[in-house]
Amino acid sequence: MSSLKSFFAVLTLTATAASSIVGAATVAVVDGVGAGQFELRNAQGMTVRLAAYGARVTSLVVPDRDGKFADVVLGYHDVEAYKTAPKKPYLGVTLGRYAGRIAGARFVLDGKEYQLSRTGGPNHGHGGVVGFDKVTWHAERTTDGVRFTYRSVDGEEGYPGNLDVSVTYSLTSDNALVIDYQATTDQPTPVNLSNHSYFNLAGEGAETVLDHVLMVRADAMLAIDEASIPTGQIVPVADTPFDFRAPRRIGDRIKDEDQQLLLGKGYDHTFVLNRASDRQPTVAATLYDPASGRLMEVLTQEPGMQVYTANFLDGILVGKSGRPYLKRSAVCLETQHFPDSPNKQSFPSTILRPGELYQTRTIYRFSTRNQL
Ligand code: BGC
Predict the structure, then answer these.
(1) What three-state secondary structure class fits 72?
(2) Does 121 contact ligand 1 (Cβ within 6 A)?
(3) Choice from 124, 126, 265 to test ligand 1 binding pocket (greatest atom count within 8 A of CB)
(4) In DSSP terms, which residues pair with 190 in a beta bridge?
(5) What pLDDT, on the 0 to 100 scale, is given for residue 276?
(6) For residue 23, is pLDDT > 70?
(7) Which domains does the chain show, CATH number per domain?
(8) What per-residue confidence (pLDDT) applies to 33?
(9) Average pLDDT, integer, range 354-372
(10) How many helices and strands, by DSSP H and E, does the chain display?
(11) Distance from first CA to last CA of the chain, Å, rounded?
(12) Backbone phi, then psi, for 27, in 5-degree steps?
């Protein structure tokens, strides 16, 4: 079999019908290059690839306004490459047990202090040294997607309680990738799950996202300190470079001499979303690439969204297209609770208790426009 043919050779295992939110998608196991990954495909030709290593999104192929398809997330063809890469900036992964930073790698819960693993410096980030991103999850096909499950055992990375987690990806007929997170625990523990896909709507490997137009429904953001930990201050975005309430180029003010931008080396901040509801996903953000016409809407039930403009990518990683992944060559829109909530009484609680169900849905929905 030619390599191209083998690359596309997929073994279609199920084809299925719609429910109220998901449309017909086929779920296949990839054969040849990229073996072991799952591929979801809908009737419009959108495909999503997923890998059990990190319960991650490895590819997301969507049309532009002329019907030309491109892969809009950074990553690799081959799962092994995620393990052997010289740097591991969480490409496409599920972040957990706690997305974002926890100051001093410690917190007190019900009067007891817990010491977490440190991830460079004195703090704890993205769930620890291994986290949910560097383990291989159990995978099972669902009717229109894949459900990944993982048991994070009591004491893992310092967290209390056995946590049973599932992340289910489904592809709808209207080009939406739906991510459903669930978790239960046998001891009180902080939980904050998110997805760390790096988007470039011009296609991964394109140089920057500075011309992408971003809208974020947030009247405020969380100020950070030198270690990128929220200070606790909730700052109105009005008259700051963080005002994306009306659609604006990401690059418009990213170079402003703004103290918060300097601390983050660009955008690397939690936006405090103006939520219509926490019971169903509502539009938190839109990202638009004027050149291709591709538009992505982000819907969530979460109170926050981390906007990270790939400030620490430096060209060392070379992705699927053979081009280096440069600083600002993507943007992550990570729906989540606020970083360091276990140490900030004023932030919405992230504590899950026995008998409770952690449940949250995020949707990345794709379409095209001639203009915004
Ligand atoms: C964080 C960044 C971090 C990046 C990848 C983002 O979620 O906010 O500070 O560098 O993940 O490592």
Answers:
(1) coil
(2) no
(3) 126
(4) 351
(5) 76
(6) no
(7) 2-368 (2.70.98.10)
(8) 83
(9) 97
(10) 3, 28
(11) 44
(12) -125, 125
pLDDT in tens, 263-307: 999 999 999 999 878 889 999 999 999 999 999 999 999 999 999
Q: Does residue 64 surpass a pLDDT of 90?
A: yes
Question: Token digits for 53?
Answer: 């290593």
Say which DSSP state 6 is in. Answer: H
- Residue 120's pLDDT is what? 84
Angle subtended at Cα 253 by Cα 250 and Cα 257, rounded to the nearest 5 degrees: 140
Catalytic positions are 196, 334
Phi, psi of 104 (to 5 degrees): 65, 10
Distance 371 CA to ligand 1 centre (A): 31
Residues 200 and 206: their CA atoms lie apart, in Å, by 7
Distance (Å) from CA 305 to ligand 1 centroid: 12
- In whole angstroms, what is the distance from residue 36 CA to residue 49 CA? 10
User: Ligand 1 pocket: which of 82, 308, 328 to mutate (most atoms <8 Å of CB)?
Assistant: 308
Q: Rounded CA gap, 201 and 291, in Å?
A: 9
Q: Which phi and psi angles does 49 have, rounded to 5°?
A: -110, 145
